Every structure is written in structure tokens, then in C-alpha cells.
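Re-run with default settings, no changes from the original entry. Doing this only to confirm the output is reproducible before filing.
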Amino acid sequence: MAATFDLQAHISDVTKCPICLEDYKDPKSLPCLHTFCLECLRSYGRDKLPGDELLCPTCRNSCRIPEAGISAFPLNFFMYDLLQAQNAAKITTDKMLLCDACSEVCEEESVDIPPATKYCVDCSQHVCEKCSKHHARMKTGAHVVVPLGEEMSKELFKSRKSHCQEHKAETVKLYCYDCKTNMCGLCVALKHKQHNIAEITEAADKLGRDIDEQVKAVADCITNIHDLEQQWDEEKQEFLTEAEKLEATVKQSGEEKKKIVDDHVDNLLQELRDHKLNFSKEVECNKESLKMTAVAMQSYINYSDTVRERGNSSDITHAADELCTRAMSLLQTDILSKTVKSPDIEFIPADDDTFSVGKDVSLIGRWSCGNGMDDRMT
């Protein structure tokens, strides 16, 4: 017997909505792969209309709200199944669960719905004793049914069947590389003739290896981000040290001509403080962008690892294209290619002859900026 998989411990963080910090309710996925409760997204985007830009609350990645509204963002089926399995593994003492299958059949009838005692892994449904026997004898293949409150092994969770979105009674067994979608046998005959098709486990192995390579590339990039943060800190400290030296030079030159150039000294120092402040802000802004990028990348890795470790072949192939697109987007983030360089600023003292001219010219000196900014005279 396979070792028991502590589902609660492994997915407790993954299944928490970043907005409400509770388990997902109706989990909706954004193009950046971050997932949120539908109601949390609605509240977050309450001032937005269909077609408006929506920034991801986690990584600030921009996307467009579908024409049908926020509810039209795709359901994260993998996360939904994880939550259903997690709930099935909990012993319910405070609330009795009713049979999902009986509820669907008797939706419009006033009958008593029997309590659920078991969980169908393949259908992600809580079922009563009678329905559990029916699920275990399905003509299309016996479903895996476990008692409520029983821990589920990783192998058991990964072995669950995935049903075709077009033909609900069919299970997905194939993958179309041209359309990047899972499908059943009927889909091949109806919509995917002459397409590049593979058996889903074979496609999952290939696409899974691609995901592993993308995760490694993103992980390496996070290491590079930490190095860049350190470079920014070092460059900032070096610049501030040099700025302090320049400040001393300005003060010394000002003291020599103090009686007539106090205003000029103050102006020069204010300009230098502006340079220091602006560059410090730029450094902190770049560091914040790097940190946000690292957070987005780590979130990508966590989600990819979860799909690889606990997802079945259908989950992997379903997520592969989005994961690839997201990885490429992360690896091409602008902040990663930004040059770590402080402003090239130099103080040029005024000539003694200039000093004798009067107050209409720079009596102390001027700043020379080599980063494309105009020299400023004071």
C-alpha cells in the first residue's frame, strides 16, 4: 500500500486565497497563473468594467477583464480538485455533508437528500452509500471511492480520471499539440483530424520535462535577482560615499568665499541632495521591482511544483502552455536587463578669475552630469 499523503500539510498554503487568506471558494485563475476567490476578485475589481485593465493583486501583472465580467475568468480546475480532496480528508463534526450526486438528480424536487459518507476521487463529489456503489461500478470504468475523513495517498489523487470539457461522459486520454488541449476520442474525430496528437501520458512526460527546465531557469533567475539586489546596494553605498566627498569639497570651497557665496553653496548642496534623493528613490524602486519579480517567480515555481507533484497527466498538459507562457514572460521582465549604474556626476570648481566677475555667474562651481542630463549652473 502506498504511503499516506498528508494532503492538508502539502497544500495548506497553496489553497489559500492571497486576498482573504482563507481556502479558495470558486477559485478563478488570472493569466499570470495567480488564483483568487471569485468574490475576492469581484470586491478587488468592484470599480472595473468588462474590458478594463486589472492588475493582479499579487504580482501587479496586467490583464483585461473578459467581456462577460470577472466571473468569466477561468476556473482553476486543478486547485478545485485539490480543495475537494482536502475537504474529503477532513472529518466533519460540525456540519453534515449531503450527497452531491443525489442533489443534482433531485435539484427541483422536495425530497430529503441522504448524507454523504464517501468521496469519489474521479468526480470530485461527496456521495452517499448508494451512489458510491454506483460510482464504483461505472460502465466507463470503476471510479475510486474513499470514505470521508480518510487520508488520501498522492498516488491515489494523481490517478483520478479527468473528464472531457466537451463530452462530459468521456475521459481525456489524448493531447493535441496543435491546439494545446486535452481531449477524448470523440474530440479527435470531430475537431482534431490531421492534428499532431499524442497519448496523454506521453505528452505529460514531454511537457513535464519542459516545465522542469522552465522552473530551473526561473529558479536560476531568482539567484540572479538576489545578486542584482546586492549590486544595487553596493552601488548605492559607493555613490553615497562619493556624494559625501563631493559635499565636503563644496563646503570647503564655500567657506573660502563664504561672505558672498552662501546662497550659491546652499543651491549647490540642494542640487546634490536632489541627486542623492532621486538616485536613492531609483535604487529602491528597482529593488522593489526585483523583489516583486522574485515573488512572482517563486509563486510560479510553487504552482508548477504543485502541478508536477500532485497533478495528473491531464492537469500537467492543461497547465503546460500557460506555464510556458508565464515562464517566458517572467524571464523577459524589463528590470532584469536594467543596467546597475549610478549617475555620473562631477563637481567642477569655478576659476579664480570667474570669482571676480560678480554674482551673475557661478562663483563656486557647477555640476557636470554625464548621464545625458544638462549641466546645471548655479
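The mean pLDDT is 81. The longest helix spans residues 200-256.
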